[in-house]
Design brief:
By secondary structure, the chain is mainly alpha-helical. Helices cover 46% and strands 4% of the residues. The protein has a two-stranded antiparallel sheet. A two-stranded antiparallel sheet has the order 2-3.
Length: 458
């Protein structure tokens, strides 16, 4: 499980808590993959299994997806001079405000290359070579990039969203995710941790459970997201029908004591589907983009006057799409969009929507929809600054970066050691020097600054 799910406050450690002690992300593995994809593009014309332009387009789309994640975690990153191999071992950093439009341009180029009538990559484990679905995913990424930049660059956001609107994912059939296999070499590492090794280190965060249960009727997705509490022992199969989160990131001693003096099933863990997949043997999903995200983006774009439509209607459609997807793929999840309880929940969400403060309800629903999609959920909170659910670890702030929640990750030490001159230039430009390279500094699109009150800085 990615620790970025802790940043999004979806889950919490119930012992061995780091309490934001090490805010980091996979810099090296991302750049390794990005370089591999660059090589795929270079060799695309040697394939005899698919149209070269389609192979190149798919590689470019995945690169755009990965580069956005990296820049959203760190800020400025090697981009324009990256992926040059031995020709440039010390690439300079590109400003995030320049990376975003470049990503949109690269997606436009990929979309233009796609030949829907020709074969896609034979080894495509995501869409099975269906190039229409890749084109829709690329347009969905344009909408994601656009809406995330909306406060920092309105013109860019409007162009990306209006161009992609209507061309992105059309239904749950277009949902984009990587599914692990059940073999020991290729199954989910979270499955190995929780099932194979028998670890029980993560519960669902109390704050997230409370947010999804804030109305008189619970969000129906709770049945797909969380195990129910029980008087039995793990795996808590005889649920009581209720959900209870563990206090978020308590101090290690008190967290361990609380876990040890209570039954392990007194607190809800992520539903077995999340580590173990639909088979229960490790074939878990790694979400990349689901249809409900497109609909929630439309809700926000409509609220901002970028596209036509009623935000409430888009929210209703988004919740229904999400409920139907998880009702289908999560074993034992008894949820359907046309169930009266689901419609009661949707009515409550729509009634809570406030045109003058649309960020609150739209932010909550976007957060819920991104469950276990680590960086995307964390980025939603950082950008929209919706209130009431996020805060410092239980027991108070316990970090050295001056805020109660991480706002970025500090660059890996390898950059200081191997690319020091460019690293120093990047942190000077963004944060005024090396001392600002920590998790308490804002990146380009996170510009409102209202999330962290002065009382939470120290």
């Amino acid at each position: 499980m990615s620790n970025m799910n802790l940043n999004a406050q979806y889950t919490t450690q119930n012992q061995y808590t780091d309490r934001y002690g090490g805010v980091s992300y996979e810099w090296g593995s991302f750049y390794t993959t990005l370089n591999d994809l660059q090589e795929v593009k270079r060799l695309s014309d040697q394939s005899n299994s698919a149209a070269p332009e389609n192979i190149e387009a798919v590689a470019t789309i995945i690169q755009a997806w990965a580069f956005q994640i990296l820049t959203d975690v760190y800020g400025d990153i090697p981009f324009e001079e990256a992926l040059q191999g031995a020709e440039n071992r010390s690439p300079s950093y590109t400003a995030q405000e320049n990376i975003y439009p470049a990503l949109i341009d690269s997606l436009d180029q990929a979309i233009g290359k796609i030949s829907v009538g020709s074969g896609g990559p034979r080894s495509d484990l995501i869409h099975g070579g269906d190039m229409e679905k890749w084109k829709r995913f690329a347009n969905g990424l344009k909408m994601r990039i656009g809406i995330r930049a909306v406060d920092a660059n309105r013109d860019l956001a409007e162009r990306a969203i209006t161009e992609a609107n209507g061309n992105a994912l059309q239904s749950n059939e277009d949902n984009t995710y990587f599914q692990f296999s059940t073999s020991s070499a290729h199954r989910s590492s979270y499955h190995d941790n929780r099932v194979v090794l028998g670890r029980d280190d993560y519960d669902v965060s109390e704050r997230f459970v409370d947010a999804m249960g804030q109305y008189d009727v619970n969000d129906p997705r709770m049945d797909a997201y969380f195990e129910q509490t029980s008087s039995t022992t793990a795996p808590c199969e005889d649920g009581s029908g209720s959900y209870k989160g563990f206090p978020f990131e308590r101090e290690q001693q008190s967290a361990t004591e609380l876990k040890n003096v209570t039954n392990t099933c007194e607190y809800s863990r992520p539903e077995t589907f999340w580590p173990s997949g639909p088979s229960g043997d490790g074939d878990a999903y790694k979400p990349m983009m689901y249809y409900d995200e497109i609909l929630i983006t439309k809700a926000e774009a409509a609220a901002r006057g970028i596209i036509n439509g009623n935000p409430k209607d888009y929210l209703k459609q988004a919740i229904e799409a999400s409920v139907n997807f998880y009702g289908e793929v999560v074993p034992g999840a008894d949820i359907e969009a046309d169930d009266p309880e689901t419609q009661k929940y949707i009515d409550a969400v729509q009634s809570d929507y406030d045109r003058s403060n649309f960020e609150q309800v739209i932010g909550e629903q976007r957060w819920f929809a991104f469950y276990m999609n680590d960086v995307q959920g964390w980025s939603t909170f950082r950008r929209l600054d919706f209130q009431g659910w996020h805060g410092p670890p239980v027991g108070g702030v316990a970090n050295d970066f001056g805020t109660f929640i991480p706002l970025r990750a500090g660059y890996p030490s390898s950059e200081q050691q191997l690319n020091g001159t460019n690293y120093e230039s990047a942190v000077e430009r963004q944060f005024g020097g090396v001392s600002g390279d920590d998790a308490g500094s804002y990146i380009w699109w996170d510009e409102e600054g209202s999330l962290i009150p002065e009382s939470a800085r120290y």
